[in-house]
Amino acid sequence: xxxxxxxxxxxxxxxxAIARGLDALNxxxxxxxxxxxxxxxxxxxxxxxxxxxVRLTMKERxxxxxxxxxxxxxxxxxxxxxxxxxVAQNAVQALEELLKKMRIKAQVLARWDSLEAGGEQxxxxxxxxxxxxxxxxxxxxxxxxxxxxxxxxxxIVGREFDRPLDLVVDVEGYKARRENQLKQLAQRMAERVAxxxxxxALEPMPAHERRIVHITLREHPSVTTESIxxxxxxxxxxIPKK
Length: 242
What we know:
Elements: E1 6-11, H1 14-25, E2 32-38, E3 52-58, H2 84-101, E4 107-115, E5 123-131, H3 144-161, E6 167-171, H4 174-196, E7 200-201, H5 207-217, E8 223-228, E9 235-240
Parallel strand pairs: 5-6
Antiparallel strand pairs: 1-3, 2-3, 4-5, 7-9, 8-9
Helix pairs in contact: 2-3, 4-5
């Protein structure tokens, strides 16, 4: 797959330039190496301030994620529950039709997975992973496009089977990598809270990302979690148990 590997971006400040570059690459800071080329200059009489300039380079990563995150192309894992094979097949068909209407050529792979929660009964989810070339357009800024595609697929499949379905639409393992990052962050921050006995607030996140943090830590012996704030500012706070 042919991807943009690096980009130079400019802005009024170094941070603004970095933010513009990350948006162009559909990446996070963890995904790139940052090189400051010019920190910019202050305004002088009769002249505008010189803009800051940075270069962002995508870090190397495996073309295929770990086996437990992405199945082999020929596999269509099926839930032990009766009838779920039909659900998976219909979900694949629904997503393929949406992609076709968007004039995007891609393959949809389906598998059942469980969101580990530390309890005896993990939550079951259907994962639809879209594979193809130049699929960055399906992710969008702050995952807005992929979230909209997931919402439509859930709506179509849910109406057909007359029951809600925890269905996740992923693109080239993007959400799988993000989920792993969130789980690791949640565990790391939980250990900090447990040792310092001081609450920690994470960065603002969309609802499905906050849910991952809540589920990851809901069985933790030393901390509990709570969402605070409103709208785009809503974030998870990790709190020590009394």
